[in-house]
Design brief:
Number of strands of chain A: 18
Pfam families (chains A, B): M20_dimer, Peptidase_M20
Protein name (chains A, B): Acetylornithine deacetylase/Succinyl-diaminopimelate desuccinylase
Structural class of chain A: alpha+beta
CATH class of the largest domain in chain A: Alpha Beta
Keywords (chains A, B): Hydrolase, Metal-binding, Protease
Organism (chains A, B): Gracilibacillus ureilyticus
Largest interface: A-B, 86 and 87 residues
Shape of chain A: globular
CATH topology of the largest domain in chain A: Aminopeptidase
Oligomer: homodimer
InterPro entries (chains A, B): Cyt/Met_Dipeptidase, Peptidase_M20, Peptidase_M20_dimer
Chain lengths: 472, 472
């Protein structure tokens, strides 16, 4: 098998691939300019003042696909933002059908004061392109659009049958996509799906992402008196809602980072030794360096890496009570609110975990206060695919051939709900082909994407379509 | 002793007193109109936009005292708002000298939208006068000014030697008064002090307030990573500052309302059985009715009443961390902040307690986060005078003669720093002659003061000066 790779490589580097790579190379500057156009559209899905811009971004994607050579392109209206659907199904019956999913909407840019360049005026510096959406997800979506175009413009065809689904609501929960997938099941049906909305563990380090965490959450408000009270007159007679909330919170997780909510870990698929070895091979992020935290912590019995990748978590995302201004105000606050979310792993059911959280809160509620719970309607199950699946192996090969390094295998702490839906509705593998890096600063000011990943990513994608045209 | 009260009453109702009571009765409407003028001046000390109005209110007080018959009246400039000082020292060497202290500044009126009438346009309805400052403290200060005038205008003299000190910074900590008391000790020196800036336990229930709590506080901020983090990518590796803060907070007070900070209760003067009996006689406030809280709580071993009056407390006044807007944001917050204040009882030293709080927080800080502490510069020791002191007994008598009811004896959970300063600088009794009611809504929208207390209060005060002209 020693020359297997070189021989395969030779066969892979057929005339077709050479044409495609040449096209990509010649058009790299052009592609960057087109990406900039895409990035200039402030397609902020969560904010209704940008509704028209969101539409505009959908139009950009549709137009690009049409110009690329997709004959069937629709901008599908929904109850929210439009969804762009396109298909090219002329690769033949032997070739598989792939659903490429992405999103053209972006996070809000706030806080604006912390951006070094304008969030919607792409700036290239230090080998990166800076803009909101550069990494999540426009940079990566555009790479796929350009590769489709490269194939169609040079060879007149794609190696695989392709359905393209690019929505505008991923940042706000993809509610309408979910409905469409349910109602129009056959339209989106495919043999497998590919998504590029994640990242590599480090710059230039091919990464196979074979698992995602699930997600559930809620908000609870503890209420004491009807109004804020003078703490001198009433301190000693009234349960302080902020302190009651603190007691509830500390009953949910201890200082060993173990979640104490009864039943929380039931059904959790344990990490096998094989997986622990696989994870260990992936370079660890020095979290103290990347985040500025004094030191890392992790669940008792697990490393920080294992905990972020494959153990469930419970986090406070926000809390507020009483007086928050400058100086002192001697009150007993009327209410106290905490927002919690959990990241889940295979074996956990989001609805069940949400129930457990709510029950726990009600059970731990101290005397003298009441509680109201607002459940987060969005949720997702965890996702995990066999790292040895042929589609996964070919992705690893595509990566290593382009980047010149073996891929590492990881599971991610984040959630991508659409992955779980595709898994549960179609029971197909979802290949997470991510080209981002830890420095991209998703969801934060000064989001960026590395230019060399932009180039190499397109080569990797092109290589991948060629490899999977025949599934072993 | 059966007829003692009636005989004394007869002697008390000397011609002088009849004259004074008649004057008060005839001028009641006039007094109300003058009070309204006083209330119309928005003397909000904390807000510099009202600086000129604050001056104007000082001028009102000074003018009134001059017209009343005080020959020595000064508006003393300070580094902040002016202080009005006046003295009338012609009662003779046998008569004691009293320092009457009050304040002409008021709390801000915000939130404005919740006032039923304009905060600085006094409105009379339901037997009350509604305006910011009606109870705290202009209504009560004015009563004293009117009584001084009543004596001087009818009899040409006051029963006691009087020093008047009415400042404009009580709501913001009286910093300049403190300096003046230190620097000009003799100027303000007296045999005892009288303050009317507190309330009765219920409408029409004479109340002897013989103790106040002290006060100390701080704010602490727990810091984790440099920025808010994506909770999927970093959950499991980074200590959540909000949860760390919750762990610190719950280590400070348990669900039995006992403060757990080491050394907190050291030196606390215990409640004697006599005092517990005295307190029990005071009508209890039904805290669930007055505040809307579901039920009351109290420190293990003490009733809610005892706890509010005479046991130290630790309260969270505010806290905030991370995302506080609508819906969900899946972050690990970078920081979490809590504001704490303690009400102290005799035996506790505010600076020492503040140290204990800070040390405790640092000791309980979990691994993986840092903390910064901001100490509240304002503090006050508790105050307690012997309920059997002659000056206190005479206050009780003055009350019961006017209101026709025995006075109840209480200690208050609130703090009045100037009381503690007078105690520690001059070592004199401070008589808290309060005419407010629980419905006055100090520091809140729709502050008001009952008109019958306005009338009866002036009678009580006049009666009191007459009684204390000779101290047994």
């Amino acid at each position: 098998m020693l020359n297997y790779k070189m021989v395969r490589k030779g066969k892979d580097r057929e005339r077709i691939m050479e044409q495609v790579f040449q096209y990509l190379s010649e058009n790299n500057q052009e592609h960057l300019e087109q990406l900039k156009q895409f990035l200039r559209i402030p397609s902020v899905s969560t904010d209704s003042t940008y509704k028209e811009d969101v539409k505009k971004a959908a139009g950009f994607v549709a137009e690009y696909l049409k110009n690329a050579g997709f004959r069937h392109v629709e901008v599908e209206e929904t109850n929210g933002h439009p969804l762009v659907f396109a298909e090219w199904l002329e690769a033949g019956a032997e070739a598989p059908t792939v659903l490429f999913y992405g999103h053209y909407d972006v996070q809000p840019a706030e806080p604006l004061g912390e951006w070094k360049s304008e969030p919607f005026d792409p700036d290239i510096r230090d080998g990166r392109i800076y803009a909101r959406g550069a990494s999540d997800d426009k940079g990566q979506v555009f790479m796929h659009l350009a590769v489709f175009k490269a194939f169609l413009q040079t060879t007149g065809k794609l190696p695989v049958n392709v359905k393209v689904c690019i929505e505008g609501e991923e940042e706000i929960g993809s509610a309408n996509l979910y409905d469409l997938l349910q109602k129009e099941k056959e339209k989106y049906e495919a043999d497998f799906a590919v998504i590029s909305d994640s990242g590599m563990v480090a710059n230039d380090q091919p990464t196979i992402l074979y698992g995602l965490k699930g997600f559930t959450g809620l908000e609870f408000t503890v209420k004491g008196p009807d109004n804020d009270l003078h703490s001198g007159m009433y301190g000693g007679a009234i349960r302080n809602p902020a302190m009651a909330m603190a007691h509830i919170l500390t009953s949910m997780k201890n200082e060993d980072e173990v979640v104490l909510v009864e039943g929380f870990y039931d059904g959790v698929e344990e990490l096998t030794e094989d997986e622990r070895d696989l994870m260990q091979k992936a370079p660890g992020e020095d979290f103290t360096v990347s985040t500025g935290a004094k030191e890392t912590v992790s669940e008792k019995g697990y490393t920080a890496k294992e905990h972020t990748m494959a153990r469930p978590t419970l986090e406070i995302n926000g809390l507020y009570s009483g007086y928050q201004g400058e100086g002192t105000k001697t009150i007993i606050p009327a209410t106290a609110t905490a927002k919690l979310t959990c990241r889940l792993v295979p074996g956990q059911d989001p609805a069940k975990v949400q129930d457990l959280l709510a029950e726990h809160i009600e059970r731990k509620l101290p005397k003298g206060v009441t509680v109201s719970i607002k459940r987060e309607p969005l949720s997702a199950k965890a996702y995990r695919v066999d790292p040895n699946h042929p589609l996964i192996r070919k992705a690893a090969e595509s990566f290593s051939e382009t980047f010149g390094k073996e891929a590492v295998y990881v599971r991610m702490g984040g959630s991508i709900p659409v992955v779980e839906w595709l898994d549960s509705i179609y029971h197909i593998p979802v290949v997470l082909l991510g080209f981002g890096t830890p420095e991209d600063r998703l969801h934060s000011p000064n989001e960026s994407f590395p230019l060399d990943h932009f180039e190499k990513g397109m080569q990797t994608i092109a290589n991948y379509w060629n490899k999977v045209k025949k599934i072993d």
